[in-house]
Specification:
The protein contains 8 helices and 5 strands. By secondary structure, the protein is of the alpha/beta class. It comes from viral metagenome.
């Protein structure tokens, strides 16, 4: 059974202290360094913090979007549960008992699957951990970004491929880079709609390629 998958993530933990940033090596005067900390360090620290969303060991899963076969897409979000662990437990209950299973997504080999797999190990969710066979050649996944690519460095964006194929593509003005801003502004409905749309786009691209 095919499970089309997409996750949205946000940074986690204490904010990065701007004073821990290292100024460029080409400035040495005390007054220049002081000015750099005043004018640049805050933005650099904020950017470094936001980058945690891309690291499974420093970020948190905000929502898990999935669709089983031809069924409607669904969203599990930590916003409406007590914790990330609870959301992953719900997803574990969704996938357990489905055999055989193929996880299908865009860049899931490098991002979505290891993010979920590592979190499953962290929280002791053995059933979810075991749902993934991460073998590069015989694993139970299909990464459409890799399937679409012409070679090992031909990585295209989901939205670009969707538009090329005449599909709707991304929803509204959100992107992966603006998810955290939307989260801080309390725009969870937009985020869940965005995640759900990505799942539907992945499924539509899969059908274009393989059906």
């Amino acid at each position: 059974m095919n499970i089309f998958l997409d996750i949205e993530t946000i940074p986690f933990g204490d904010l990065v202290d701007p004073m821990t940033m290292t100024p460029p090596g080409n400035i040495s005067k005390p007054e220049t360094i002081a000015a750099w900390y005043k004018d640049k360090a805050i933005d650099i620290a904020a950017e470094k913090y936001r980058a945690r969303a891309l690291d499974s060991m420093q970020g948190n899963i905000l929502c898990i979007g999935y669709a089983i076969g031809d069924e409607p897409s669904e969203i599990i979000t930590t916003e409406y549960l007590d914790s990330e662990r609870d959301a992953l437990s719900v997803f574990r209950d969704v996938v357990n008992g489905i055999e055989p299973i193929t996880f299908i997504g865009w860049n899931i080999v490098a991002f979505d699957i290891p993010f979920i797999w590592r979190k499953a190990i962290k929280y002791g969710l053995i059933g979810l951990r075991n749902a993934f066979n991460r073998d590069r050649y015989k694993g139970n996944h299909l990464d459409l970004m890799l399937a679409w690519g012409a070679d090992w460095k031909d990585f295209r964006k989901l939205d670009d491929v969707a538009q090329f194929l005449g599909l709707p593509g991304k929803l509204g003005g959100l992107t992966g880079a603006t998810i955290y801003d939307a989260y801080l502004e309390g725009r969870m409905d937009e985020i869940t709609a965005y995640c759900k749309n990505d799942v539907e786009t992945v499924r539509a691209i899969y059908r274009k390629i393989f059906e």
